């Protein structure tokens, strides 16, 4: 295996990163938004370099090689071979979710979500005139499990038409097991609730765990669901705007494609095409090295908190690079805590309450950065929490 330098410090100042809404104070450390402080895989950089040298950046037709890269990747890495005709490229998972909701729900419908959960789920649901039907995960013994009794009860509401499934789960850090996914699928089938699986973090899995595509579990589950994926999280490509919708059922696919057309979301760019193809064809070794580094970062974070801040445990991280830290011992709201961290520690994090009321008292911390930045962030966290 090649050696990849994940310890390299890459200045963000002047890069117009979405990590900043405006020009920040130079002493603030951002550890909130879900992208990484690592260069992407060398194969992706080389593919983009070739595209730049070509010099023509006009419209691009998605070639068959793009779809072949996707099907080979998921077949080799995850034991799932989605059919070519079921794949629809889009500019991002968020636009995909918006189009899917528009296609498959009507204003006033309810959409089931397992909270705490990715905050944009609530935004997309509200933007489509629907209501979030929240089903809280159980947090016990410093980990999350699914409350299947509550899930069955919520799904039985005839106004619940669709479930947004986060797999792996952001921010709880769970990688749902095949058994858990089957029970979710069976409950939704019994209650005629369609599943939309956001699996954008599927490549970011810690040792000892395995991601299972929901649609891979059965043909019935595949027909009764759509899946959204992207290489953006794993290969740090969010700015290139590339994702894919997988829809096995032709009628469902047609409705989603119609909604995408009405929304005029546009086509993916030649840079997006080349980056995804290179990532999936040549990026596996780099991704394995990245996951190993992220795991070491998680272990460092866990040990630091156990030693220096034992009142604030981090929950086990099975997938993603987003640490979920229990700060309820601070005795303040997560928003107030985030303000203190920013004011006193010059540390920018996400307060847990944005992921629903079930996230109150927690914070989310991005650990996809060189170890030196992680240490800096933890020292800032300690300073603010021990005032």
**Main sheet: strands, sense, barrel:** 7 strands, mixed
The counted number of beta strands is 14
> Structural class of the helix and strand makeup?
alpha/beta
Mean pLDDT: 95
Give the end-to-end Cα distance, rounded to a whole number of Å: 45 Å
Task: Describe the overall structure.
The chain has helices at 42-54, 64-78, 93-104, 120-127, 148-155, 178-190, 219-223, 232-235, 250-263, 270-282, 284-308, 334-345, 371-385, and strands spanning 29-30, 87-90, 110-115, 131-136, 138-140, 143-145, 160-166, 194-198, 225-229, 243-247, 322-326, 347-348, 350-351, 362-366. The protein has 387 residues and is α/β, with parallel strands linked by helices. Helix 1 (42-54) runs antiparallel to helix 10, helix 3 runs parallel beside helix 4 and helix 5 (148-155) packs parallel to helix 6 (178-190). The longest helix is centred in the last third of the chain and has 25 residues, at 284-308.
Key features?
seven-stranded mixed sheet, three-stranded antiparallel sheet, 16% strand
What's the topology here?
Elements: E1 29-30, H1 42-54, H2 64-78, E2 87-90, H3 93-104, E3 110-115, H4 120-127, E4 131-136, E5 138-140, E6 143-145, H5 148-155, E7 160-166, H6 178-190, E8 194-198, H7 219-223, E9 225-229, H8 232-235, E10 243-247, H9 250-263, H10 270-282, H11 284-308, E11 322-326, H12 334-345, E12 347-348, E13 350-351, E14 362-366, H13 371-385
Parallel strand pairs: 1-12, 3-4, 3-7, 7-8, 8-9
Antiparallel strand pairs: 2-10, 5-6, 9-10, 11-14, 13-14
Helix pairs in contact: 1-10, 2-10, 3-4, 3-9, 5-6, 11-13, 12-13
């Amino acid at each position: 295996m090649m050696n990849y330098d994940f310890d390299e410090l890459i200045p963000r100042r002047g890069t117009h990163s979405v990590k900043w809404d405006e020009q920040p104070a130079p002493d603030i450390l951002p550890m909130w938004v879900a992208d990484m402080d690592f260069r992407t895989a060398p194969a992706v950089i080389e593919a983009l370099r070739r595209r730049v040298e070509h010099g023509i950046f006009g419209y691009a037709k998605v070639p068959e090689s793009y779809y072949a890269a996707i099907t080979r990747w998921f077949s080799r890495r995850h034991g799932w071979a989605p059919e070519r005709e079921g794949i629809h490229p889009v500019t991002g998972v968020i636009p995909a979710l918006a189009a899917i909701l528009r296609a498959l729900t009507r204003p006033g419908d309810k959409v089931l979500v397992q909270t705490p959960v990715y905050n944009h789920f609530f935004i997309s649901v509200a933007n489509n005139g629907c209501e979030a039907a929240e089903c809280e995960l159980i947090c016990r013994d410093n980990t999350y499990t699914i409350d299947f009794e509550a899930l069955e009860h919520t799904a039985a509401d005839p106004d619940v038409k669709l479930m947004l499934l986060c797999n792996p789960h952001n921010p709880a850090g769970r990688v749902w097991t095949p058994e858990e996914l089957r029970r979710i699928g069976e409950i939704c089938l019994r209650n005629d609730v369609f599943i939309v699986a956001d699996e954008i973090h599927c490549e970011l899995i810690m040792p000892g765990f395995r991601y299972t595509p929901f649609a891979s579990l059965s043909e019935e589950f595949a027909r009764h669901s759509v899946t959204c994926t992207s290489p953006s999280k794993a290969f740090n490509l969010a700015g290139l705007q590339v994702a894919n919708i997988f829809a096995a059922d032709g009628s469902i696919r047609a409705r989603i494609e119609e909604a995408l057309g009405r929304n005029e979301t546009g086509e993916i760019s030649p840079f997006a095409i080349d980056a995804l193809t290179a990532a999936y064809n040549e990026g596996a070794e780099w991704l394995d090295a990245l996951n190993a580094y992220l795991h070491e970062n998680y272990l460092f974070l866990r040990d630091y908190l156990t030693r220096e801040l034992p009142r604030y445990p981090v929950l086990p991280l099975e997938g993603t690079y987003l640490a979920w830290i229990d700060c309820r011992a601070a005795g303040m709201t997560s928003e107030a805590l985030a303000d203190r961290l920013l004011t006193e520690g010059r540390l920018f994090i996400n307060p847990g309450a944005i992921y629903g009321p079930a996230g109150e008292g927690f914070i989310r911390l991005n650990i996809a950065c060189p170890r030196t930045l992680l240490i800096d962030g933890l020292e800032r966290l300690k300073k603010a929490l021990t005032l």
